[in-house]
Design brief:
Blueprint: H1 6-9, E1 14-17, H2 27-42, E2 46-51, H3 63-73, E3 83-84, H4 89-101, E4 105-108, E5 137-141, E6 148-152, E7 156-160, E8 168-172, H5 180-187, E9 195-199, H6 203-215, E10 222-226, H7 251-261, H8 274-284
Helix pairs in contact: 2-7, 2-8, 5-6, 7-8
The site of glutamic acid (GLU) has 7 residues, from loops.
Length: 291
């Protein structure tokens, strides 16, 4: 088993689930929610719900209500009030100021047509003076000479090869919206949260977020990634790939499927309610190496 005993991780576990309100909760997001919930509860920690509503253009009406309702129906009760990233713009602006003070922020006027194939700036905007009047995004220069590594609590040591390191990435978009990397780096730092459990599709983002936290003088949380559910075509089950909303009337069954995906000991047949299932799985929570 690779789960690091929490006493060695942190004295009081503070975790979270952070869905984007871009659609209803589906089987893939249930796996991420359940893994972070069980890991937190197994370690007698707190588990918060943060809505990552930084992109109103992708937001789907009614999804916050659906997500909160579905979580409750599956017994995944969070601690404290639901928080919203759309209310955190002061913190994000302050972080942008700090990045600019640290000398790693630049204005980029690239459009889709001028970006590099990797999505990085394709016009060397960092060495030109792009004025505030020109439409621009804000990007950070990522130090490609550095090695990026961290210990994933579930996957073990992670190392980003230098050839895979992008030169730069967006922290504030051309349309004025804050980028996910910035919002997550600021929102996930200690002391607010000290243990992040989420889908392995975000592994690449973790390097960027940890780097941002380092530049911003924030203490990074411990990260742990779980393998997500793929659809029949092998693509990650997600709102973008049209994953179906969870049927809340089959909550116990949905939890059993998510637990089986997470390779957990199945709760006994006698566990018929969501509470029985969650109680059993909180107690027996452990992930196989590489999950
Ligand atoms: N809000 C992001 C999403 O729903 C993920 C957040 C995270 O766990 O970092 O994909």
């Amino acid at each position: 088993m690779i789960i690091t005993p929490i006493e060695r991780v942190t004295p009081h576990y503070r975790g979270r689930f952070a869905p984007s309100p871009t659609g209803p909760l589906h089987a893939g997001s249930l796996v991420a929610a359940l893994a972070s919930f069980l890991d937190a509860r197994h370690h007698q920690g707190s588990w918060a719900l943060r809505i990552d509503d930084i992109d109103p253009l992708r937001q789907v009406d009614g999804s916050v209500e659906h997500i909160t309702f579905a979580l409750q129906k599956h017994g995944l009760e969070w601690d404290g009030p639901v928080t919203y990233q759309s209310l955190e713009s002061d913190r994000f602006e302050h972080a942008l100021y700090q990045l600019s003070q640290a000398g790693c922020l630049f204005r980029c006027r690239c459009t889709r047509a001028t970006l590099s194939i990797h999505g990085t700036c394709g016009q060397d905007c960092a060495s030109r003076e792009v004025t505030t009047y020109e439409p621009h995004s804000l990007r950070v220069r990522f130090d490609t000479a550095q090695t990026y590594e961290f210990d994933d609590r579930f996957l073990g040591p992670q190392l980003l090869e230098s050839r895979a390191v992008p030169r730069d990435f967006i922290v504030k978009r051309r349309d004025g919206l804050y980028a996910y990397q910035l919002a997550a780096a600021v929102g996930d730092a200690q002391p607010q949260f000290n243990s992040i459990v989420r889908g392995a599709d975000l592994l690449d983002s973790t390097y960027r977020q940890r780097w941002l936290q380092q530049v911003l003088g924030l203490e990074p949380p411990h990260y742990a990634h779980v393998t997500l559910v793929n659809n029949a075509l092998g693509n990650k089950l997600s709102k973008q790939t049209g994953a179906a909303a969870l049927e809340v009337d089959f909550a116990a069954q949905n939890l059993r499927s998510a637990l089986s995906h997470l390779k957990q000991t199945p709760p006994p047949e006698s566990a018929t309610t969501v509470m029985d299932i969650l109680e059993h799985s909180t107690e027996h929570w452990s992930l196989p190496v590489g999950n």
